[in-house]
């Protein structure tokens, strides 16, 4: 079923790290979207209102932290997809596993649940092959 144990463990570790980072960034992004679309404010850093302030949407004059959260999450999601591909191909899972793993980067909290499930499956597979 799976490739050699070293490849699987390396892929699982990379997936685990990217899963946590992407999940945390997605939660920040969700929080930022709630602030922006429900309360009409964005997060501004280094502006006239202080080091970190909530500024009305469209009135940000300094660093727009909200925009940076979007950008950073987007790039980490690309790395997360690579991690999903590594573990999916190392474990030689069916094609339907990949979209489920990939959804972890766009559905809040899902990456934490899929990471835990992947870790359990990997450990059980490696124990049964040992």
Structure description:
The chain has helices at residues 5-39, 65-91, 97-103, 110-129, and strands at 41-47, 50-56, 63-64. It is an alpha+beta fold and 130 residues long. It has one domain. A hairpin with a 2-residue loop joins strand 1 and strand 2. The model has no long low-confidence stretch (mean pLDDT 92).
For this entry, give a set of tags:
130 residues, alpha+beta, three-stranded antiparallel sheet, 4 helices, 68% helix
Describe the structure concisely for a colleague.
With 130 residues, this protein is an alpha+beta fold.
What is the alpha-carbon Rg in Å?
19 Å
The largest sheet is: 3 strands, antiparallel
**Fraction in helix:** 55-70%
- Counting DSSP E segments of at least 2 residues, the number of strands comes to 3
State the helix count: 4
Q: Order the strands across the largest sheet as they lie in space.
A: 2-1-3
Give the CA-based shape. Answer: elongated
Low-confidence stretches: none
Mean pLDDT: 92
Structural class: alpha+beta
What number of domains?
Answer: 1
User: How far apart are the first and last residues' alpha carbons, in Å?
Assistant: 13 Å
Reading the helices and strands in chain order gives HEEEHHH
What percentage of amino acids are in beta strands? Answer: 5-15%
